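TICKET #2291
ISSUE: user wants both folds in one file
ATTACHMENT 1:
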Amino acid sequence: MLSVYAWALLIIAIFVAFIFVISGPKAPISYLPPVCNIEPLLPCVQSTLTSVNTAHSIPIKYTVVFLDSLGVGMHLPANAISVTLTNIGSTGTNVYNGTCLPRNVSSGTRVICAVSIPGS
């Protein structure tokens, strides 16, 4: 009786392995959720994570697009955005700063912020 269950478990294990093999590896972008949250509750239009392969390293660029819907204008200084990452770009937890354009934002304006993360 034990051999019947062993065959059944073997067939199930082969089926699960087959499903993993045909599904293939996923692109890194598929591991990120398609939404982002910006405080104080600014609607995020888009966020992307891209990499550019160069001869010495693979820098990563994180871009966030949001809409100023606070009803008032705002000024975004240099290094207006910061991203904290663990074991991405460098070992350990690191904070990377980026810039946002336009710097002087009126209400209802779309803002693009970009952070460059050095590859290692």
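ATTACHMENT 2:
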Amino acid sequence: MEQSDSLSVHPDSLRALAMRVQQNVYGGAVTDDATIGIREIEDLLIEQYAFIRKSGDALEFRNNLAADPQRIVTRTVTLSRVDEPTMTPSQQLHRRRATIGTYANRGGTSYITGVLVGSTSFVPAGTVASLERTAKLTRRGAYVHVGPYLEIFHGPRTLAVSQVIVSGVPANPFTGGVEADINDPLRWLWPMPIGLDDRAVMVERAEIRLKGGAVATFQRKDQINNGTENALNKP
């Protein structure tokens, strides 16, 4: 999921979906000061997508399936020094930390698919206490996700590295993994990791909410779509 520096609306963004809903419900030109504002619709779309992803993630994890590729976010994070009074000289030299936010939980561990620098990948450790041991046994960098932090213990080939690339499934797909991103006014314009099927369901449910439930979800062949048909009275 890449962020766009352009102020134009990306066709895969949440803003584009909100504009589509607004136009379907009210028709005509789409403006931010319409009867129902764009931001209100965006919040409604997020609410709908939360339901979709909660059930989708649970099904995939329960059946030991890989996460939907649309849910995997890859981003570069900056490492900072860790200053704890009980650290050894080796830990002071090799241990680093980055804030990455909350990730989806699968089998008791965060759903992180990879941490790497170039072609050098880090290996997962079970706990912060086992970081150093894991790194020395494998002769590679090791990592563990604890709370909002990605804890790193550098290996021999990553000692001077100040940034790493993290791939995984953020708990909230609309934050890119960092909770503070929720306040970025441009986040609505970025392409969002949402599959086509989920987009269609989000739009339909948002329209149903905005029209008080009177939105046709099934079409009778002998009638025009007059907004009175739904899943309960389909032919």
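RESOLUTION: both attachments delivered.
EXTRA DETAIL ON ATTACHMENT 2: The two ends are 41 Å apart (CA to CA).
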